[in-house]
Amino acid sequence: MMNSWHDRVQKPKKSRYRWLIYVALVVVYIWAFAGIPYHGIKETAGQISRAILTGIFSPDWDYVYLPDGEDLLRGLLDTLAISILGTVISTIVCVPFAFWAAINMSNSRWVSGSGKMVLSFIRTFPEIVMAILFIKAVGPGSFAGVLALGLHSVGMLGKLFADEVENMEHGPVEALIATGANRMQILWFAVIPQVLPGFLSYTLYRFEINVRSATILGVIGAGGIGTPLIFALSSRNWDRVGIILLGIIVMITIIDMISGAIRKKLV
Amino acid sequence: MIEINNVSKTYPGGTKGLNGINLSVAKGEFVVIVGLSGAGKSTLLRSINRLHDITEGDIVISGSSITKATGHQLRKIRRDIGMIFQSFNLVKRTTVLRNVLAGRVGYHSTLRTILGQFPKEDIELAFQALDRVNIVEKAYTRADQLSGGQQQRVAIARVLAQEAKIILADEPVASLDPLTTKQVMDDLKRINQELGITTIVNLHFIDLARQYATRIIGLRAGEVVFDGPVEQATDDVFAEIYGRPIQQDELLEEAAV
Amino acid sequence: MNTKVELRRPKAPSRFKHYLTAIILLLLLWGSAIQTESSFSELFHGLPNMLDLLREMFPPKWSYFDNIFDAMLETIRMALVGTTLGAIVAIPVALLCASNLTKRGLIYYPARFILNLIRTIPDLLLAAIFVAIFGLGPLPGIFALTVFSVGLIAKLTYEALETIDQGPIEAMTSVGANYVQVFLYGVIPQIQAHFASYVLYTFEINVRAAAILGLVGAGGIGHYYEITLGFLEYDKTSMIIIFTLVIVLIIDYISSKLREKLL
């Protein structure tokens, strides 16, 4: 009778296709890792990394402020300005999109569905590619960056805003209908007060992301601190690379802290 | 004041919500509608200000048909009908005063209300309404910082500021404890008597219905099975409305113990 | 009755704070507009140029597909390898950052600080730096994605770790398990589904990122943007964009289905 539990307890059946998934994973990984060229690393790699690290720890302080312009502070200020304007533009533009995409703001699933499609289409369009297009329209410079961030952020903000609208309580809307309010008044007195804190919080969150994005726009000539960084990298001015990286890290850390503190207060 | 003529409502699935209802409510009455949940109490109440559309019949408010009204005309009729909800339906993140002023928006142009330019008289009216329900000192407090009973009183103030001639209250005390229930029902009754506002209340508790109503309407499966002054509503009548003897949890005093 | 109401009426709160916020915001906007030389008349005048550009992009040159197919495969490969390496490194980092597991402020505060520093640098900048260090090719791109993935996965994971139920950990400790055993039986079962979901989410982001890393020479399909735009072959550019969109949408779809199943 020692093994009596054997008869009573059945082993749970493992999914029959489980091994298939494992095999597929292994094949994908072999394909991925085998396809990488592991050669061609520059012999100077270690030396350069060391140079950049030394650059960060003993930066080119003179570059922080140069009287004749093109210095770190102005580059960072430009980056900040691009992200502020880009965020504000996208916030304004995305509100109608959000109401279009929110299911509880329209009568038909098709309307909100199409709104969501448009938003996810905008979202998949990388901002750097948008910046390339805007450079064609307004020429290279910060304004192209502003427009690219402004348009690209609409995709994500619009979706977050739409979620916020979908999650609001319907009760106050009903109460306003019962008082004889028209659509605009319902929107203003029952919907906006409910969603506004969420909207502001998401806007700040997107601003944090946009500051990061704004630092890379310079790579293709759309303004900000990215341009001098690319120049410093290609001219092997490692001290300057160091100070620019340091500047970016400090700026973003401060902005994250401020924005995070405000967001905590909002909710 | 309110004429409900042969009203029926069929839901898209084919279920009958209301079936051939004929009622007439005079000015100043305090009507309580009772019935099991699902009997159509809420549907009937929401048909009166057309938060729900009916499929047959006609509802006439002070001589004009709300069933046929559209757009501006519909909003104008709704302006005269205040509604109080089980879950209060305040905007929680805004101040009490602004919630009360929301009751005034039907009187003004869109632009004016959006700019927040309520006339002095409106603000006076809002404060008086808050005073009437004894909550004026909370005017600038955010609504979500009030207790349930206080929130419901703000909702009543909103209806008062609206200068409604009719008040519809859909289970106004279902989310409240017995003590605040009494306060809120007292407020409603006082307003009904002092201002002569016609009041229709949906209630679950039978003893409350008896205590406050001048007239009781019993609904069962979407049909009116009793309609008469409160004196005629005996225990047998309630048993008839509910289709079974009265149970403990239908009495507030019993349920509270 | 009116006088009584007047007496009990509370004073309206001051609006000074709101006005101040509005003024600061407007000043910020105004300053930003000057700094970036933004002018909407410029946008208005430039719009025809952009429409011309869009017109040249259509119809896309479908035959270009053959040229960029391999680059697209490389892009996916980069994202896959970068995400995987990042996920592996992220595990110990996340454990160090979780206050309920490390229990020592001396460890988790510095760990979080370093993690936040890593997260400040965007992937494209990392790639540019790694290209300067290692030379052109997909390898610096993979390293950039790895570092970026560590930042994201470790942050999401340590935040999830801090919300796990302490009960199983106490139970394992009470049966005499050592650190590794507590981790294996008390922590992993609670966190593995979340972790897998975060990895998939990071993979989605990395596919998008990998598609543009080529702009700084870090491999993948992004390189072809430079080529086609440089030669003003916009119909080819639009083909790249469309191809990338399709791949991204497919991967997003598969990944989000998998994530739904996990949680």
From TrEMBL, chain A:
Species name: Paenibacillus anaericanus
Membrane topology of the entry: Multi-pass membrane protein
Subcellular location: Cell envelope; Cell membrane; Membrane
CDD domains given in the database record: TM_PBP2
Highest taxon, organism lineage: Bacteria
Transmembrane segments: 20-41, 80-103, 124-151, 186-204, 216-235, 241-262
Residue ranges occupied by any ABC transmembrane type-1 domain in the UniProt entry: 76-259
Name used for this protein in its record: Phosphonate ABC transporter, permease protein PhnE
From TrEMBL, chain B:
Cellular component aspect of the GO annotation: membrane
Superkingdom of the source species: Bacteria
ABC transporter domain span: 2-246
PANTHER family listed in its UniProt record: AMINO ACID IMPORT ATP-BINDING PROTEIN, PHOSPHONATES IMPORT ATP-BINDING PROTEIN PHNC
UniProt key word Nucleotide-binding: yes
SMART domains per UniProt: AAA (SM00382)
Organism of derivation: Paenibacillus anaericanus
GO molecular function per UniProt: ABC-type phosphonate transporter activity; ATP binding; ATP hydrolysis activity
Listed EC numbers: 3.6.3.28
Name this protein carries in UniProt: Phosphonate ABC transporter ATP-binding protein
NCBIfam families: ABC_phnC
Enzyme superclass (EC): hydrolase
Alphabetic keyword roster: ATP-binding, Cell membrane, Hydrolase, Membrane, Nucleotide-binding, Phosphonate transport, Translocase, Transport
Cell membrane among keywords: yes
Automatic annotation (TrEMBL), chain C:
Keywords: Cell membrane, Membrane, Transmembrane, Transmembrane helix, Transport
ABC transmembrane type-1 domain segment(s): 72-255
GO cellular component labels: plasma membrane
Pfam family, one: BPD_transp_1
Residue ranges crossing the lipid bilayer per the database entry: 79-101, 113-136, 182-201, 207-225, 237-255
Subcellular localization: Cell membrane
Entry keyword Transmembrane helix: yes
Membrane topology label: Multi-pass membrane protein
Keyword Cell membrane: yes
GO MF annotation terms: ABC-type phosphonate transporter activity
Record-linked InterPro entries: MetI-like (IPR000515), MetI-like_sf (IPR035906), PhnE/PtxC (IPR005769)
NCBIfam families named among the record's database cross-references: PhnE
Similarity annotation: Belongs to the binding-protein-dependent transport system permease family.
Name of the protein in question: Phosphonate ABC transporter, permease protein PhnE
